[in-house]
Amino acid sequence: MTLKITQAILLIFGLSQSFVSYAEDLSEYEDSTFRFQTTYVWQRKAAFDAPYADGKNSLGSGLARSYTATETGYWGFRPWQGGELYFNPEITQGVPFSGLAGAGAFTNGELTRTAGTEPHLYRQRLFLRQTWGLGGGEQKVDADLNQMAGLVDKNRVVLTVGNFSTLDVFDDNAYAKDPRTQFMNAGFMAPLAYDYAADARGFGYGFALEWYQDDWAYRIGRMTGPQTPNMLPTDYRIFKHYGDQVEVEHSHTLFDQPGKVRVLAWRDRANIASFSDALAYLQANPGADKQAIFDVRTGDKFKYGLGINLEQAISDDLGFFLRAMKADGKTETLAFTETDASLGTGIAWKGNAWGRAKDTIGLGYILNTISKDRRDYLEAGGISFFLGDGHPNFKYRPEQVFETYYSMNLWKDLYATFDYQHMMNPGYNADRGPVDFAAIRLHVEF
């Protein structure tokens, strides 16, 4: 971690102390909050076999290292009854493998937020959450990041509006959600086929409306996307270009253990290229640049998908999860990863059995596939935003990832995680890999 990052951490820590003093026991009700997190991830990629030279968007076949460092502040207060206003400044720094190209699954979900070897400060979130109670008994809310301790009605309506991430509200999962504390691969942060509208860091502007009624929850939302696919500047024309999502959630008890089932549907509207148009352009212009998607963004198109999300406690310490999603696969990626159908599943096991209650072991598996339209384009030597060797002998195979981690509590809220990932057919290319990744993660929050 560089001197500048260290100085930034100390600055944010010092500011935090002017607002609150940290205590072991948080109050049961908070009018305001300031919390802080910092995460450092170091990853090493082993060299792997490849029968031909690395192409423009290949995952590099040589030994390489990657890192990310993030520091985030979480300010919040209650401006009126039922209202909560939150502001998150964040400092990021990091270097991805191969410029983030060459794989459907990003091996570190933090990588999309980083911006090179110099620290960058930006506003991550600024949003209002308003809750209207509908009865049904009171429910305790524990203090957390962007969440103040208190009580809410079990039945309620919640409106979130402003600058935030779609994933703050949709596609939650108790065992696989946060690459800072759980599985690192982005395929466990969200289904990789979920091409939710956002800027290059994963955030946007919009609203989400939730209705909680007994064991059910219903959510709808609309968010802004990028001006240009996979880039940072935001397209604020939310009635012209947007990402819509609808989610239904049901909570249940199975063999005396809690679980949830979620079904999520989404649709994007944006100026994005279709793969059939890009393939036709390549065939009509054999001497043209292979990245033909840039030449055929000729008008607004829709992209959509449907997925299911399961979480189930098996015991007090062991939990199972599964996400599966399929997109239509006709157009290029708008804002997430180059995946048209994805499955992520696994277990998380708390350490009570061996006397380490705050430790966690995770075991997970990811399967990613791409559509025939995207495959035909790559097999013709085409290059998309993150994928494409530009080689005419591209051999398609589904991409698969096995990940295991051990998160160890070192002291109070300081954790060290040891992570290993084995990826087969990176970039959906049978001629490349398999490749192994090892990582160490340090994380603290208070």
What does it look like?
There is one protein chain. The chain is mainly β. It has one domain: Carbohydrate-selective porin OprB (Porin). It is 9% helix and 47% strand. It is built from four helices and 20 strands. The strands form three sheets. Strands 1-2-3-4-7-8-9-12-13-14-15-16-17-18-19-20 form a 16-stranded antiparallel β-barrel. The chain has a two-stranded antiparallel ribbon with strand order 5-6. Helix 3 packs parallel to helix 4. It is globular. About 5% of the residues have low confidence.
Summary tags:
20 strands; 446 residues; 16-stranded antiparallel barrel; mainly beta; Porin; two-stranded antiparallel sheet
Shape: globular
CATH homologous superfamily designation: Carbohydrate-selective porin OprB
Distance between the termini: 20 Å
Total separate domains: 1
How is this fold's topology laid out?
Layout: H1 3-19, E1 32-45, E2 64-77, E3 83-95, E4 116-133, E5 138-141, E6 150-153, E7 156-164, H2 186-189, E8 204-213, E9 216-223, E10 225-226, E11 234-235, E12 242-254, E13 257-271, H3 275-284, E14 300-313, E15 318-327, E16 341-351, E17 356-369, H4 372-379, E18 399-411, E19 414-424, E20 435-445
Antiparallel strand pairs: 1-2, 1-20, 2-3, 3-4, 4-7, 5-6, 7-8, 8-9, 9-12, 10-11, 12-13, 13-14, 14-15, 15-16, 16-17, 17-18, 18-19, 19-20
Helix pairs in contact: 3-4
